[in-house]
Hints:
Blueprint: E1 8-10, E2 16-19, H1 21-26, E3 41-45, H2 51-59, E4 66-70, E5 90-92, H3 100-103, E6 114-116, H4 124-129, E7 138-140, H5 148-154, E8 162-164, H6 172-176, E9 186-189, H7 200-203, E10 211-215, H8 221-232, E11 239-243
Parallel strand pairs: 2-3, 3-4, 4-5, 5-6, 6-7, 7-8, 8-9, 9-10, 10-11
Antiparallel strand pairs: 1-2
Amino acid sequence: MIPAQGLIVWSERTWRGLKGNNILRTFPQLLNGFRENDLKILTIDGDSKEPKLLLKGIANLTDLVELNLKNTAIPSEQTACLSSLKNLKILGLSYSSFDSSKLAKSPVIDNLITFDLESCVNPLPILERLKSNSVLTKLDLDKSQLTTLEIEALSKLTSLKILSLNKSGISNSELDKLVSLYQLEELLLEKCDKIDQACLEALKKFPSLQRLKISKGIFTARQIASLISEQRKHNVVLKVAIEH
């Protein structure tokens, strides 16, 4: 641990991370005190009193590998600031407000490995842009009420290995459209009110599925056993977790 009020942590891999919710939200200009390669990980939860200053400060941290902005309002005119983060691999924007059309124009989207878009409004432009991303392996769309066009765009993201759709409102037929995600290993479908036991046939079509989380009461024990048995045909051991 080094100074700065105990906020900066040196990990065993010498990656430096900063979590400074109250301080940075109130005084975002403090980010200007860091050199471009000082931080690898930055996490901020909550709106900043000076969002423009916050985004400008983040834009200068060009060595960032992971950026988490939760519950943060990103001004439309500042969205382009993220384009300077050419090393960014993990981006978290859960519960944040932003212009998805402008964010989709940022080249930072093309290099992401993990993307958290929980509660995203109008994710279509971003999903369309992600089609050009061949390295994205984890995507969180929890609580995002996806449209037909968004499901179609999502079905093209064939590099995905982990997909979270909890409380997303996805239906049986829409789930069937996602079977093109042939590398998908983990699928989270907790509290999806529009799916029922009829989605079993769609789930059997995911050839790489190893982990499934689903709400209690969707499947009987026999149906779960049949799904596990189907995956064995692909030499895959499937584990099913039931949310109570």
